[in-house]
Structure formats: C-alpha cells, structure tokens
Amino acid sequence: MIALEQLKTGESATIQTVKNQAPDMAQLLEMGLTPGTRVRLVKFAPLGDPMEVEVRGYHLSIRCSEAKSILVKKDLSPQVA
Amino acid sequence: MPETAECHHDLHTASQQVIDVALVGNPNAGKTTVFNALTGLRQKVSNYPGVTVEKITGFLEKKHGAKIRIHDLPGLYSLVPKSLDDKIASDVISGRSNQVDNLRLVVIVVDASNLNRNLYLVTQVVELGLPVLIALNMMDAARAKGLQIDIEALAQKLNISVVPVIANRGQGIDELKESIRHLVKQSEEFFPPAGITLDVTLSEVIHPVATWIKRHSKLSEEACQFEAARVVSNDGAIENWRAVATGHAKQDYTSFLAKVRDARQRIEANGSQWGMLETELRYQWVDEICKEAVKQGTPRQGLSEKLDGILTHKVAGPILFLLIFAFIFQSIFTWAQIPMDAIDGFVSWVGGHVGTALPDWILPDLKDLLVNGVIGGVGAILVFLPQILFLFFFLSLLEDTGYMARVAFIMDRFMRGTGLTGRSVIPLLSSFACAIPGIMATRTISNARNRLVTIMIAPLMSCSARLPVYALMIGAFIPQKSVLAIFSLPGLTLLGMYLLGILGAIGAATAFKWFMNKNTRPPTFVMELPPYRLPSLKWTFLQVTERAKIFVTDAGKIILAISIVLWFLAYYPRPSAGTLPSQAIKNSYAGQLGHAIEPLIKPLGFDWKMGVALITSFAAREVLVSTMATIYNVEGANETSQSLRDKLRSERDPETGRAVYTPLVSLSLMVFFVFACQCMSTVAVVRRETNSWRWPLIMIVYMTTLAYVASLLTYQGGKLLGLG
C-alpha cells in the first residue's frame, strides 16, 4: 500500500483506506474517495501541487497533503485510456 | 426592520396559497440553468437575514391554481454542512429554516454525466421524508461520455420520478414543469422513496445509539438508524445532540457518548473503520443503483481532457493564464476607460445644464447640493459600471466554461503561504484594476473564511484610482534618473508602490488568518474540475446585469449618502461673495478638519492642506488631485499638469521658508495611499457583500492604521537617513 500522492502521472490504483482523523476525511469520502474505488492520477499542477485525479467518472483536485492520508494499491497493469 | 417586512410579506403571500419548491443539487450540475429555464429569467435576489448567502427565488409560470415559488439553493455535495452556503441549503430542505414556510417538494438537479457522485446527495435528501423529484440534467453530455442511462430503472430503484432534461437547450423543461405541478398537488398520496437498508450486523451494532436518539427526538424509526450511523461515523454529528441533553439528561449524554464509543469499538473489531461508515453505506447503495441503471458504452474522445492538456500544461498553462488575464486586465484598464470618460463627461454636462436651468428663486445652496452633491454622487456610482460590466462579463464566461477552476488549480500552490487557496487569485488580480468588481468577484470562493479574508485584503492591491496620485507625486518630485542603465527611478518608484501593496496584502492575510483561526474550519482545497462547457451568452448577460443592478441599488445608496456628507463638509460654511475658491475650501468644515488633524499628520510630513485633501479624497483616491488643484488655485488641472506640479514644488512653509513638499514627503504620501482605505465605494460594496457594517468598519480602521504607521516609518526613517 502506498499513499495516493506517490502515484505517477497516468497511473491507476484502488483506494484501500482513508486514514481516520485525516483533517478533510469526511469531505474526501463524500466526494467519492471511498475504499474499493478506482482512481487515476491525471496530473500534477504546474507548481507540483495540487494534483488532479479521476474518480467515479469525474475530475477532482486535491492537495498533496490531503492525498497523503489516502492509501491505495497500484493496479498491476497500467490502465489503457 | 427588514425582517419584519419580510414576515408581513410572507403572511400576505401565504394567504394567496404560495407553494414553495426547493431546487438543490451539486455544484456544476446545472442547477441555476434549470432554475432559469423554469422561472424564465425572472428572479429575485436578496440575502438570507444576517448572512452573506444570497437568496434567489422565482415563480413558476402560473397556469391555474396555486402560485409555485422556486428557491434556488446554494449548490452542495452533502447535507453535512461544511460552509454557510451548505448550512442554509441543508436547513431549508430539512425544515429548519423560517425562510421557506410551505415547502412541498424538493427538486434535485442531477448531472447525468456525473451520475454516481451526484446520487450521493440524493441518498441523503430522500431520507428527509419530503416528496422528491429528480431533474436528470445534461443528458447530452452523458451520451457523449458513452453513458446509457435507463431512466425507468433509475426511477424504479429510487422510487422517485425522474425527468430527463437538457436545461441549456430547454429540452424536457415542459415535462419538468408538469411534474412539479402534479407532485405539489398530490403530496398526500406521496409514496416514500426507497432508502438504504442497513445490514443486520450493522443495525445491531448501532442499535443502542439509535434507541437513545429515538428517546430524545421525534424522528421515525428509520431516520433514527441513519442518524445513529451518522453520529457513529462523524464527531461533528455527535455535537448536534449535546443541545438536547440538558439538566439531569447531561448524565444521559455521557451514556450516549459511551454507546457511540462502544459501537465504534465493535466496528473496528470487525476490521472496518467507523469514520467511513455513513459514506461507505451510501456509496455502496449508489454503486448498486448505477450497476443496474447505467451502461458504459464507448465514450467519444474526451475533449475536456485534451483542452486540459494545454490549459493546465506545466509550461503552457501558466503562460496562457497570464495571457488571458492580461487581456482582461487590459480591457478593464483601457476599453472601460472610454465609457467611464463618457459617463464622467455626461454627468458634468447634466450637472452644468441643471445648474443653469434651475430658476433663480431656488436657494444657491440647494442648487449646489443638487449639482455637486447629488448629481456628482450619482456620477460617482455610475462611473464604476463599465469596469463592473467588463470584468463580470469575462469572469462569468470563465466561470461557466469551467476555466476558473483551472485557474485555482494552477495558482493554488502560489497562494498557499497566505493561507488562501487558488480561488482567491482572480478577485485579487482584478483588484489591481478596481477593488469594487474584485470584491464582488469573491462570490466564487465557497469557503466563507477565505472569502472574507480575500475581501479584506483586496483593496491593498494598487488600483487604477491610485495612479493619478502616484503620477502627480512621482512626476513632481522623483527625479528622472536612470538606475542600472535600463530602469528609471520614477518607474522603479511606481513598481515599488505596487509591490508594497502586495506585501501588505500578504501580511494582512496572515494576520486575518491568525485572528479568525479560533472558531472557523481551516480552508480545504478539495475542488471539482468540471468538464469544459460552452457558456450561454443569455445567462452571462443576465448575471452581468444582475450584478450591476445590485451594485447601483445597494452600494449606490451608501455612496450617494457619503458623497452628500462630503459635499456638506466642503461647501459650508459659505464664504462671503468674491472669495477665491482656494480661500473658500480653506474656511470650509473640510478645511477646518484638515487644520484639526494637522498635529496628527505632521509626523508623516503632511501639512493641513494635505489633511484637507485626505478628507475629501475619502470619496475616491483621485479626488486628491482636484482638491490640490483647488487649494493651490490651479484651474482645470489634472495629474500631469505642469502648473500644478510647479505650484507644489514652490510651496514654502510660511514659518521656516523651507519647501513643504520634498521627495520624502511625496514618498510618504504615496505610501499612505498604498494602504489607506480612501474609497467610499469600496466601503459600500464591502457592506453589501458581507451584509453587515462590522467588516467595512474593521477595514477602515486596519487600513488607516497600516497607512499611518507605514507613512510614519517612511518619513521618520527617511529623515534619520538624512533624506528630505
């Protein structure tokens, strides 16, 4: 398991858990980042932070500090767009 | 009292049988487009009492029977409120708001192309027990994404009517209106929609909590279960129940906390996380519905992601952002200047004609009040309209296309140090042209605290009205020397003033962040990046005119009142006939005030004449130039007039015979203008946008203090260094 922010651009992964007590945990979950959901890291912003992920068919921007508390398991084969 | 008036109004309309319908939905789901399509662009914008949230209502075209009033509630992702906007929307549909008293139906606008996440809110709203109708919007976008939605299956799974619409093209709107009329009539026969069923183990685990809630509330058995699940997964939700536990029930509340702790422990023992309980349950249900009602076909090539490949590209993104903004900036600065000059000219033409056309028997005082106080005041309001119209035209285009979210995405890291997010970038940049539209543009900042901080620091960006002041002072006192071969001293001074304002804004943002930290949530930056969409020009124009109207009616009143007060100060007491204008202003109340504050401003290097100009230029910063011209008897001067510059340079202190204006004094005056809140229109618009006098007053005090201290440091520091 790695943190979501450790993914590379274009990589997909499945969310395993969101750390309890993460400051924005409720909001991250409400936006659909629940365990078992697949995410794809679309890109990092030009200054390296925040990051853009695709989740549940839409695009979401979250700060890397927030992505630290989302633990994921990388998909074995890279997703073909 | 506006609130009483509102009550009477409601009583009155209730007797005419007005039925309220609430329109809710996620941000970016096209809720406002649906609202406009339903109400035919006839909307009424006001404020919810005591808060900054705008209350937008409109009537469904009346066919027969009762009038149906539609409330366009702020967009929200969940009923667990995170901001004031969320709370208002959540209060209205949960029946906790006295602003909507005959709520019979909730219409949820759902983005079909983003069905999964949009259904999350639906799962919460259906549990409230009100009749619910889904307007499934953006069916075309869903098709383009290759999504095939089985509407019948969706409606059946949820046990709610679902009306497919494409609101921006008006498709399905008639059917939606029909469904609304039908459902508000039939509320008695309403069948409750399907809800989540909790599995046996879970309902057993949370049962003690649910029983406690049942004992302390009037909620139904089912609703208690959901509330229990929410309480177990969310500390914030526990707090809501502290209030019901008073007196001897306090002990009871302790037992409630113990029950919650116990449930959480049992969930953890099962290998699950209690913090995710509610959201996981809801998304499980959502996924189940989507599995049956949605088929994923092959999507057409995503245009949005292609566009993002350029617009948020590492290199091209920031460059394009700067280009786009430079264009907007340029348009406000130069194009808006043409109608602004025209308005200026027109107002003085009208003033002149009214002055001569008025019959002689009218008191000259009244004449002057009308010409200089009232017509001049109206001119001061109208002159902002071109900038507001231009800026809002571009900003609403950028917002509606989805580009604004990308600006926030690109610039967020840049704003991090101030405690703000990328959302504050556009309002702050706009404030370099003028703080009025800049402050009005903070509406796109959803976090209430960030919005307030942005409003408070926006006037520190050097706006275009400071340029005449800078130009006069630099032109007269900063020598044309070149620095490092390519820069000139005047140019560097001007740049320095802009940078000083930015530094001040960063400092002020940090200070406000610190002061407000105590009881507000820290800002988060979880933001949707909606797909790019074509904007609707009709809607853009509506928005622009609405903003302009609000500025003229709400802020305009205050601007007019202040300008009449300032007129009074400069006009009275009347001098005897034949007195020079320069003498008249010296003897006026404004002149006397200037004298009175001289001891206070002497340490800044200012004399009483500058004091007079500081008082009159509270109307607007550039008034400093015309006041100076009046005091020094220079007719028709502007900031580039050689005669006014010469007058200033040759001005001598009558006692010491030394020059009143030195480069150091001019620097001190410019620094004062960088920070001081010398603009009644800014005050008026902050009053309007924050819906209270508290923040504009804090703004005047903090900016004037900052200006005084900075100016003092400049002048006294400069003297210590042997300058001036």
Structure commentary:
The complex is a heterodimer of chains A (81) and B (724). With 81 residues, chain A is mainly beta. Chain A has two helices and six strands. In chain A, strands 1-6-2-3-4-5 form a six-stranded antiparallel sheet. In chain A, strand 4 and strand 5 (58-62) form a beta hairpin. Chain A is globular and about 30 Å long. The N and C termini of chain A lie far apart (24 Å). The mean pLDDT of chain A is 88. In chain B, helix 4 crosses helix 12 (277-293), helix 17 packs antiparallel against helix 24 (537-571) and helix 23 packs parallel to helix 31. In chain B, a hairpin with a 7-residue loop joins strand 3 and strand 4. Chain B has 33 helices and twelve strands. Chain B is elongated. Chain B has 724 residues and is α/β, with parallel strands linked by helices. In chain B, the strands form three sheets. Chain B has a seven-stranded mixed sheet with strand order 2-3-4-1-5-6-8, sandwiched between helices. Chain B has a two-stranded antiparallel sheet with strand order 7-9. In chain B, strands 10-11 form a two-stranded antiparallel sheet. Residues 1-15 of chain B have low confidence and may be disordered. Helices cover 60% and strands 8% of the residues of chain B. The longest helix of chain B has 35 residues, at 537-571. Classes of the chains: A mainly beta (81), B alpha/beta (724). Strand 5 (58-62) of chain A pairs antiparallel with strand 12 of chain B, so a sheet runs across the interface.
